[in-house]
Design a protein that fits this description.
Elements lengths: L19 H10 L3 H4 L3 H7 L9 E6 L6 H8 L2 H4 L3 E6 L3 H10 L4 E4 L2 H8 L7 E6 L5 E6 H7 L5 E2 L2 E2 L9 H9 L6 E3 L5 H12 L22 E3 L5 H6 L5 E5 L2 H8 L2 E6 H4 L7 E5 H6 L1 H19 L6 H8 L9 H8 L2 E5 L2 E4 L16 H13 L9 H11 L2 H13 L32 H5 L11 E3 L2 E3 L2
Parallel strand pairs: 1-2, 1-3, 8-9, 8-10
Antiparallel strand pairs: 3-12, 4-12, 5-10, 5-11, 6-7, 13-14, 15-16
Length: about 475
């Protein structure tokens, strides 16, 4: 099977045939109770093959193309194959979705990776949430208004008459300075304070020498000392907010960057893959007590989603056109099919006449996209600390323990290896790992990320909190 984003199959030897003993050893080695010191994980992992305890399930999502695994699992019958009757319900915004999962109105959801982490550490809302599956890699972009694009485009390096990518945020410095001279602020939008979009936008701006601002205790604006203040706008409202002039640019998932191109109101300038190559994006999130109370149901949900992820990346993207039609339905993303197809089918349009190959813009199954790596969780936590959402220094061990409390590869592996044993997915699509990726490059600023040394990683940034620093309303203080 050839994957859309570059399949893992064939790039490594198939893992050994799976028997009951090997299955148990895998669970013990990745996210078991010995890792986190909690007993609920052992209970959940031990009852995965029982009868479905809760066949009627309601899952939430936001109208973005990366909710695709949920829609495909329903429309292609993968949920039904697992004995589940699933209702998918769109949510107004990320806060409503989060509250729905915590309050039990939703059994789980297409969720920002930062949400279960933030809830677990008590940032914003305190709740014990887990992420047993990563939904995708990549999928976001940063768009600027036509006005701003016209100000930076003449000075961009060109090749064949088109801008050379990636485009650095440093090109915005004269624009920001011009706004300031006029007594105005250059403002950008993102979708939620703990969203990947917030951290990607901040990363891009800081890499270009612009400070996106810091958070203080109890402050959800995060604009202390900001050169470019950021504000929250729900994804489907981004184009209208840009068109109204409330913001000068934004970071969002698809199809809302392509919608700006389609409406001729903005120009995407960089994809998140160009900020951090093959970065993790959304997760499937649910309450920890749900997984403990309904272990077989949780496993069935995960198996259905994994099968949907495989379908989305199968055979070089052969199914993507069908996926676009499904997602364009009003009960899912509800955008025009051609707008969704502009990024979902291996291409990405930066401007009229500037469509480029983007085979890996959305990766759902290949490159172990579904596996919830601890290192991905640690990265989000480092960015929370970098910008002050985590107010005080934490030890490296704290990052590891927090990641292991939320990201649950034990549950993912149980579901995935059952699918391998059943012949539903290839053995080589399941990684053999301690949960940490090797040190990662591919960042726009050239900084290497080693998840096993989070504090050393934080010390590498020119813009961002350093060891011993705190944020107050008057600025950054400390050593």
């Amino acid at each position: 099977m050839t994957g859309f984003g570059g399949s893992a199959v064939g790039r490594r030897q198939a893992i050994a045939a799976l028997g009951a003993v090997a299955f148990s050893l895998a669970l013990a080695g990745c996210g078991s109770s010995s890792d986190t010191g909690t007993s609920g994980e052992t209970v959940a992992a031990a009852n995965l093959d029982g009868a479905i305890e809760k066949p009627n399930i309601k899952l939430g999502f936001i109208k973005l193309t990366d909710m695709a695994p949920l829609a495909i699992a329903k429309e292609k019958g993968f949920f039904a194959e697992e004995g589940l009757n699933v209702e998918l319900e769109p949510q107004a915004n990320w806060k409503v979705l989060l509250d729905g999962v915590i309050g039990g109105q939703l059994d789980g959801a297409h969720m920002l990776a930062g949400q279960p982490l933030a809830a677990t550490i008590g940032y914003g809302t305190k709740a014990d949430l887990i992420a047993p599956l990563s939904l995708d890699l990549n999928g976001n972009a940063i768009t600027l208004s036509n006005k701003v694009w016209a100000m930076i485009e003449p000075d961009l390096p060109k090749e064949g008459g088109k801008p050379v990518h990636p485009i650095s945020a440093s090109h915005l410095k004269p624009v920001v300075a011009s706004y300031k001279q006029q007594g105005k602020q250059f403002k950008m939008g993102m979708v939620f304070p703990v969203s990947t979009h917030n951290y990607e936008l901040r990363y891009w701006l800081a890499a270009g020498g612009l400070n996106p601002g810091f958070y203080t205790n109890g402050d959800v604006a995060g604009t202390v000392a900001a050169d470019v203040p950021l504000s929250v706008t729900p994804p489907p409202q981004m184009p209208a907010t840009l068109e109204a002039g409330t913001i000068d640019g934004y970071c969002v998932g698809e199809p809302w960057n392509q919608a700006a191109v389609h409406k001729k109101i903005g120009v995407p300038v960089i994809t998140d893959d160009e900020i951090w190559h093959d970065n993790p994006e959304k997760v499937f999130g649910l309450r920890k007590d749900f997984a403990e109370k309904y272990p077989a149901t949780t496993a069935a949900i995960l198996r259905a989603l994994i099968k949907a992820q495989q379908w989305l990346d199968a055979d070089g993207g052969a199914n993507r056109a069908e996926a676009v039609k499904i997602l364009s339905q009003p009960n899912y993303v509800g955008a025009d099919a051609d707008v969704i197809a502009a990024s979902m089918t291996g291409k990405f349009t930066f401007a009229p006449g500037d469509t480029r190959d983007a085979k890996g813009f959305n990766i759902f199954f290949d490159k172990y996209a579904g596996y919830p790596f601890y290192s991905d969780a640690v990265w989000y936590l480092t960015q929370m600390r970098r910008w002050g959402q985590i107010a005080d220094d934490k030890t490296d061990q704290w990052y590891f323990d927090t990641a292991k409390a939320v990201y649950r590869p034990d549950l993912y592996l149980a579901a995935a290896k059952k699918l391998v044993a059943d012949g539903a997915i290839p053995a080589a699509s399941v990684p053999e790992t301690d949960g940490f990726r090797a040190p990662q490059g591919g960042f726009i600023d050239g900084v290497t990320y080693d998840a096993k040394a989070p504090n050393a990683y934080l010390a590498k940034f020119a813009i961002g909190l350093k060891q011993g620093q705190r944020v107050t309303a008057s600025g950054v203080s400390g050593s």
